[in-house]
Amino acid sequence: MIPKGLIISAPASGTGKTTLTLGLLAALRARGLTVQPFKSGPDYIDPGFHSAAAGRASINLDTWAMDEGMIGGLIGVADGADLIVAEGSMGLFDGVVRDGESGNGSSAGLATLTGWPVLLVLDTSGQAQSAAAVAKGFATMRPDVRVAGVVLNRVASPRHEAMLRAGMQEVGIEVLGALPRRKDIEMPSRHLGLVQAGEQEDMPRILEAASRFVADNVDLDALLALAGATHPQGAPPVLPPPGQRIALARDGAFSFVYPHQLDGWRRAGAEILPFSPLNDEAPDDSADTCWLPGG
Questions:
Q1: 5-226 topology per CATH
Q2: Domain boundaries, the chain
Q3: pLDDT by residue (tens digit) across 157-177?
């Protein structure tokens, strides 16, 4: 059975989506829940961090490159989990323009397709009640996208939090949590693959700290209650492989390959033969295709 889900999104990049997502995945896992992570859009880096926190492979859902049937099939990996948590990309409504319509490939588009409500993360640095105007604007931008609540991030003090909460109450936006400023658990730069999950030696400490941070400052019970029913659903996709026996470079230098791509090839009957160029390994002589992913 496919569980309910929600999307962690924000007005822009750099607001703390990934920190909240990782802390939430780790905190719920510590509660004994099985959480299936997803990532909106074509991103190789964040899913690696998701997988470390959740203990399950994070899958990309890209409404620009994938049709509804494929997305429904990929969502099928969540079968048997207790909750789906998807991290958005960029700002909630940010996407490309196609046929005069903006927002294609956006996190809002994924929310509409799947039925998952949005938990909006707000960087409240340098503002107080004005943050409520931002939240209300996002909540009313599109009637088909449900912003179920907000998490206030980078809150400076209890007084600052009180002003923020007062503003949200005035506009009818539910506050699910308030995260004080904490530099020690913010994720380092992940753009262009500068820091990947496997290269972060401090990852266990970061995840443990993020788990406690979120558990202490976010109402997890209220968050679980706002998750929405999931649609569409389908069978995992079968993807045409580039060969029957595929030599796949896999190491610290060659890591940018989507889990659903390899799974789709295997479902089509292909055999994956990993090798490590960094360890001076050569492709298997029996392979009829050599695949060199980026990294």
A1: Rossmann fold (3.40.50)
A2: 5-226, 245-291
A3: 999 999 999 999 999 999 999
